[in-house]
Specification:
The protein has about 290 residues and is α+β, with helices and mostly antiparallel strands. The chain has 7 helices and 11 strands. The two termini are about 40 Å apart.
Length: about 290
């Protein structure tokens, strides 16, 4: 096996649940949503491939959970089906784990998912809300089209702040999905403009894109409060985005201090250090709560 190892990050949509830090090696990878606790996965063939009983010659390899790693406890492997052709423990330890140990001080990794899928507003034909993203254009055909979603389906209302109601969530989702005509894949350029994947001669100017998850200026007045409360609640996860403007980041920091637990566990993956006064407040609350 060769050892072509890459460290990068991608965003998770839809719904948006934050950024994932990734260390990718041959036939194995490490994933983390906070930069501290890492899930170790190994690539393997399916049982159909092993037994040669599938008519499809191009069944992709799949990833299975191999173990976990963090700075304090190190690497811990899990028992696996002996029929799976996963990489050897030596390969994972000498390539993936070794790289991980020497890369955590470089967090956050560069955000590489520059291909984005946007719901397009019916009336203005401008990007309304981001649906998905990926790192390579060849992956686009394999990503299913889906509506915009505000929270995971398994999200319990107990984890939402009292100010953000289920009705707020439902109305946001309903409006965005009913007022978008289509989903378009684009490639974001260095200047934040975008080139259409289906027509590389067409582009969308940077100013047409919202800085966060949806274009709040295109929402009706009746949804402005719900949209603001939603962004406020998402602030600990949104602070992990790269390329935020200073005013936007400062606004998110002000909101994130009200979610000390969610913000505190993501401090390692923020591209910019929080304002010291806000960081101090969060650390004090974490200490009071025993974290």
């Amino acid at each position: 096996m060769t050892s072509d190892i890459k460290c990068f990050s991608v965003r998770q949509f839809s719904p948006f649940v934050g950024s994932i830090q990734i260390v990718q090696a041959d036939y194995c990878r490490a994933l983390s949503s906070d930069g501290t606790h890492w899930q170790i996965q190994a690539s393997c063939e399916t049982h159909q491939q092993v037994w040669n009983i599938s008519e499809d010659k191009y069944i992709p390899r799949r990833y299975v959970l191999y173990g976990s790693w963090d700075i304090k406890t190190g690497f811990s492997s899990l028992p696996l089906d002996p029929m799976l052709d996963v990489p050897s423990l030596q390969h994972i330890e000498t390539t993936l784990i070794h790289t991980l140990q020497n890369s955590v001080d470089k967090l956050p990794f560069q955000q590489t998912d520059r291909y984005e899928c946007w719901a397009i507003d019916k009336q203005t034909s401008r990007p309304l809300a981001i649906i998905n993203s990926t790192t390579h254009d060849f992956m686009i055909p394999h990503i299913p089209d889906k509506p915009w979603q505000a929270i995971p389906q398994q999200q319990t209302l107990e984890t939402l702040p009292a100010s953000l109601t289920l009705n707020d969530i439902q109305q946001l989702e309903l409006h965005i999905n009913q007022n978008s005509i289509t989903n378009k894949w684009v490639l974001r350029n260095d200047d934040a403009s975008a080139t259409l994947i289906t027509d590389t001669s067409s582009s969308i100017p940077a100013n047409d894109f919202p800085e966060l998850l949806f274009n709040q200026s295109l929402l009706p007045e009746s949804l402005q409060s719900a949209a603001s409360k939603y962004i406020h609640w998402q602030s600990p996860r949104l602070l992990g985005l790269h390329f935020l403007s200073t005013p936007c980041r400062e606004q998110l920091e002000q909101a994130a201090q009200f979610y000390a637990l969610e913000t505190g566990k993501r401090l390692n993956i923020y591209p910019s250090r929080l304002k010291q006064s806000i960081l101090n407040k969060i650390m004090v609350e974490l200490k009071i709560r025993g974290h």
